[in-house]
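Sequence in, structure out.
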Amino acid sequence: MNNPLVLDGKTLAKQIEADLKTRVEKIKAAAQVTPILATILVGDDPASVTYVKMKGNACQRVGIDSLKIELPGNATTEAVIAKITELNRNERVHGILLQHPVPGHIDEQSCFNTIAIDKDVDGVNTHSFGNMAMKLESFKSATPLAILTVLKHYRIEIEGKEVVVVGRSPILGKPAAMMLLNENATVTICHSKTRNLAAIIQRADILIGAVGKPRFIQGDWLREGVVLVDAGYNPGNVGDIDLENSVPKCSAYTPVPGGIGPMTISSLIRQTVEAAERKYRLN
């Protein structure tokens, strides 16, 4: 197809940040406080260090404070949980983010489940997931929220469409599938054990790449006119979809970089602002 629509997350994120800046100013005026997002980084993984820095920069742009907590790579699960518990009790902190992934010896889900749901602005607590799946009030996983925000902003029809999600991680594939199901899509989740993957992908009206493998999804697997949402980011600035050979077949796509990545950070900051608004009953 000619001239597919570019689902520009970078520009949309800037628009959202401008709105958030105004909302933060209202919080400061009404409650005499500055919202705080606390980020916990365990170890010194270079990609994680970069992501935490980017999130801190986004906080600065909208006028909220970033509290950065760094724990050594050999920190125990108990030590991480103790730090999260301390932040839960801190009235000045409105959002808590445990940077993913943590070192392998740490029980990541136990740490996620320690985060108070009213501060779980990354939507990683299983209670947050359950509330989201049941369409109850909850903070949502940041990247799936980014995906849905982009699709809605660009008026991509979701209801009744066949959506294929490639990837089943608890903070991306699974919540993305549930959120799209709640929008009345027909959703198929594919993973490493899926048989005839290419044939299933070829059915998709909307394809979500969330598998964490560079250029894994091939152009010749796609149907004409598919909407491509690439939620992957791999070394070399490439996503999970071979966009070079896929874009000619699609009707719309998210670029990598500049698509879902900036919107994920925007979603995290947006939910931190919402947490502060709820706390001070400003929404």
